[in-house]
Amino acid sequence: MRGRLHDGTTPDRFFIQLGTLIEAEELVSNRHKLKGTGFCLLDVLTDDEQRIHNLLWPRFVEARDTKREAQFNRARLYIDKVEVLPGALTT
What we know:
This protein is α+β, with helices and mostly antiparallel strands. The protein folds into 2 domains: 1-42, no CATH class; 47-90, no CATH class. It contains 2 helices and 3 strands. The chain is globular and about 35 Å long. It starts with 20 loop residues before the first helix and ends in a 7-residue tail after the last strand.
């Protein structure tokens, strides 16, 4: 286990597999409803999504360091509500 709870114990983990991407997106989009319950939902990226996420990560860190709004939606990076494409990394 990577994380520890506030009482020093490690969290239990369980995995579910959904039938469609639509089900997965709906589940992830509603994970805010778990706030305060002691549960969280982690999203597993595909290999291609992980590769893109890793390419975009330095831009995410740079944006956050300069106090800009930055967030990932799976393998999509948004800085100041504008999507940053992997091809735009050279600019």
